[in-house]
Amino acid sequence: MRAEEQVQKSEKREAILQAALELVAENGLQHTPMSMISKRSRASAGIIYHYFESKDDLLASLYQRIKREMSRAIAARYDPQQPLVKRFQSLWLSMFHYALAHPKEMVFLEQYESIPGVKQHEGVKTLQDMAEDWQRKNPFGAENDLEAQVLHGLVRDLSAQDLLKDLPLEVIGEFTMGVALRLARQSAAGLVKLDEAALNNVARACWDAIAR
Length: 212
Description:
Elements: H1 3-27, H2 34-41, H3 45-51, H4 55-76, H5 84-101, H6 103-112, H7 127-137, H8 146-160, H9 169-188, H10 196-210
């Protein structure tokens, strides 16, 4: 296949994914049929099914693309040599800034991850459980697992130094990344204005909520 043909195929596939992202953000997963994606992307149903086996396959591909991009953004500013509190703040701030800059992606992630079976941790109740679960499944190495690698390293070091409060995973998630994502949504909507100093203070407060 010639280079220009490969580029055209890549661009068409990307156009389909982008159309799906925009439509899900506008209408929700349940109200985004393939016919709408076809119209928005200007690709016939036959073309779409050439790239994706089904709507589920298309959505899964979009999910993987977003997670990969988010992982890159998080890993880019993360320095594992920094003290733990600085590493946590860097992770928190990266998540906030990514969510603020990518509202459509965050809407898609929230809706897609609410589908039963898409994102679940059987028997996982604490961050230590999650770290052990990651180690057992050994998912690292793939480009879109950078986020998991960063989180695993942070959890591992927090646990090793006994700095993590004994709280359920869901609670820690709400105290940390949950706060970052909600503040990003409120900032995007103009409901709250936070400068970098305020964001650093919030990140530190989230750290204080989960660290001994």
